[in-house]
Specification:
- The strands form 3 sheets. This protein has a 3-stranded antiparallel beta sheet.
- About 55% of the residues lie in helices and about 5% in strands.
- The protein has 19 helices and 7 strands.
- It is elongated, with a radius of gyration of 27 Å.
Length: about 400
């Protein structure tokens, strides 16, 4: 019947070779498909697989009615819709959901397991391990089965790459979180998630610049360099003086400053604990704000380096190189877990500014609770306790106490 199809309608064109009933049936079906696509569209998750599922539900409603049990993916989406969390946390879960959808499609189309779906009622520890193995090898499968993966529109940064151990660990943890939530909600009594070993990811020693290096960057003459470098310097320096996350810094306005104190609620913990953070502004921080004052609203005017993290990190690396901050440091390879030696300018990023604030304060004060009150870390945070292990000076001071 394809020869009678008219894309401009869309539907069957005028012809006497088809009955009115057939043409009306197709017209109704097309309208139903378009309506469902419009109602269910989500720019974050929409892909060819989703379109195919919507079309199949419309074309074969009886089959859809038979499968009344929500899949693991259905529960995952329900969790994201119903569970109150910060936007950053929500965005961290989305890649796991996309990866899970590709995994199920792979099992159906490549492994040939027809109608493969995971369900919280029947998922096993072996299923968890199989998904983990898929995550580890997806970048290789992407090359081997290019035609299959073309349906997902994976281009640029979305193309699967070798994943860091910590990222894989967190993806499995996301599945266990959804599973435990389903248990609490009474959707299942299956506790196979408790049989899955998912240890805390190993966090490397935090790397940051010294106060001397920070001041070298702060005082550098960048008048001959482009505005992007100068803006990156001010953004990085201010962040290293107040210790906030880059996402929070972008949203701060002058309404957050009262009597020389910056007050805000970290977005990562918003809605969970909601504790505000108070950071007094020192003279350097005030000087940076003064030379970046624009419309009196945002602390930093909108610019490529203040709105795009990738552009910001690129300029920070250039900034370090220009200022001669190139000492070699030991870093952990995120994929292999092995230690490697790299110049610090090659790994510099906006988050290093936050670590610079924390690390240098800890050297001076060594009071975790006081510093946490200015960084938004929760009490007992594993990421914060790492700073206790980095300073040889602390160890020297301790042994000198019993000298």
């Amino acid at each position: 019947m394809s020869e009678f199809w008219d894309n401009d309608i869309p539907g069957y064109g005028k012809t006497r070779k088809l009955s009115s009933a057939d043409k009306k049936k197709v017209k109704t079906l097309v309208t139903d498909i378009i309506t469902k696509l419009s109602d269910e569209y989500d720019a974050e998750t929409a892909d060819a697989v989703w379109v195919r599922e919507v079309v199949n539900r419309c074309m074969f409603p009886n089959i859809e009615q038979k499968r009344s049990t929500p899949t693991f993916i259905d529960r995952f989406e329900q969790y994201l819709n119903e569970h109150k969390m910060a936007e950053n946390s929500y965005n961290i879960y989305k890649p796991t959901l996309k990866k899970l959808k590709r995994y199920e499609a792979y099992k159906r189309e490549i492994d040939g397991i027809k109608d493969f779906h995971l369900y919280v009622e029947t998922i096993t520890s072996d299923d968890y391990h199989d998904f983990e193995e898929y995550i580890q090898s997806e970048h290789e499968l992407f090359k081997e089965y290019a035609d299959f993966y073309s349906q997902f529109g994976l281009k640029g940064v979305s193309v699967p790459k070798p994943m860091a151990i910590v990222s894989i660990t967190f993806m499995i943890r996301h599945l266990r979180t959804i599973h435990h939530w389903c248990i609490r909600q009474g959707y299942t009594t299956n506790k196979s998630c408790d049989q899955v070993s998912n240890p805390d990811p190993t966090l490397g020693t935090p790397i940051y610049i010294t106060l001397e290096e920070r001041d070298k960057i702060y005082n550098a003459d960048l008048s001959k360099h482009c505005m992007s470098i100068q803006m990156a310097r001010d953004f990085f320096m201010f962040q290293s003086l107040i210790g906030c996350r880059v996402g929070d810094l972008r949203k701060l306005t002058y309404d957050n400053i009262h009597d020389g104190v910056l007050t805000y609620i970290p977005h990562k913990t918003m809605g969970r604990q909601g504790n505000s953070v108070d950071v007094p502004l020192n003279s350097k921080a005030k000087e940076i704000l003064a030379r970046n004052y624009s419309d009196g609203h945002l602390l930093f005017p909108k610019h490529a380096v203040t709105t795009n993290t990738a552009a910001l990190n690129k300029e920070i690396k250039r900034l370090f190189t220009i200022c001669g901050i190139t000492r070699v440091v030991t870093v952990r390879n995120p994929v292999t877990g092995a230690d490697e030696q790299k110049p610090i300018n090659e790994i510099a990023s906006s988050h290093m500014a936050r670590r610079t604030f924390i690390g240098n304060l800890y050297k001076k004060v060594k009071d975790p609770e006081l510093i946490c009150s200015m960084t938004g870390h929760t009490k007992g945070s594993r990421s914060f306790t790492r700073y206790r292990e980095i300073d040889e000076d602390i160890k020297i001071e301790l042994v000198n106490l019993i000298n």
